[in-house]
Amino acid sequence: MDTARRVRVRPVKKEKIQGQADRSLIFIVLFLVVFGLIMIYSASAYSAVRAGRKANYYLMSQLRATLLGLLAMAGISKVDYHVLKKFAWPAYFVSLVLIALVLTPLGMTINGARRWLNLGLSLQPAEVAKVGVIVFFSAYVCGNLKRVQHLRGIIKTIILAAVPALMVYSITDNLSSAIIIFAIVYIMLFIASPKSAPYIILAAVLVTIAMLIVYVIAHNIIPAELSYRLGRIKAWLDPEAYASNRGFQTLQALYSIGSGGVLGKGLGQSTQKLGFVPEAQNDMIFSIICEELGMFGALAVILLFIMLIYHLLMIATNAPDLFGSLLVTGVMTHFALQVVLNIAVVTNTLLNTGITLPFISYGGSSSVFLLTEIGIALSVSRSIRMG
Fold first, then answer.
1. b/e string for 344-359 if b means 16 or more Cβ within 10 A?
2. Whole-number pLDDT of residue 239
3. Is pLDDT of 144 > 50?
């Protein structure tokens, strides 16, 4: 009789990168969201009271949008991301329709810019379009992988990307969002294509053209007065010469950054938010962070965004298929560009383009759809397994 002990070897289940990776990403997002709510209250309380509203007016408005966004994030993270393929074309066309509706009586003008829709609550179509192009072009590139590796397919894809980008620029006069929409698709194509040289060359050409335009304006070869946007470039190059108009917001933001020093004046102690920095809770909120929390606070915020983008990069790199990888690549590109552009604008490294700082600047539409994108990334991360 064989007395040897028979050992049952149980199959080892593949472990999802969900535990630690997902918790880390969620923690970073939640920290940024809570920090953003605190800073919005700090930056907006004075201007809200001055406008005859309650001190927490902007805080409560942002909190409602944030809760809606968190619900969307949680819900989408539980859904298999492959379901999004079914909504690719509808997402693209709905984005175009919403942008076009800005021209109708549903369009709203806020602070001199007509970029919103009044649908019972305010909605910024450009934010919808960013999510729409991420979903659509992830599915489109996967379904036309061979075609987008050739010039004709690349041109067709770029035309499809240019439509929402140009509509956002021409209808809502939102250059920064138009650039982000186009750049998201461009990076997706770069990732999906085995040939990187054409994309690098095209990017270099576009940067060179932009530098030539700046040079021409800086040396008065084309009078800045011929165009409002050319005038903004002129103000960016020499904000002190336009201190009473176009350069005012930039100069006040720089004063705010400089006055914060290394440790800052303390949370809630900013003086520049007292009517000096216009709409301090919006695009220029990073300057208030610098003033109240100093260089250390600003660097901490930047580090958190770097960690966020790094986690998105890891999810995109380890995604089980190209569709998932492109989805998260689009989300990562959106966040990276928006963070870089906002901080560059506040520090006058780039001209003022009106771009928000994710999760921190005031903006309900932005908050809801950024959290929706995080939900998509979490959905992809749940499907990643390691042996």
1. ebbbbebbbbbbbbbb
2. 79
3. yes
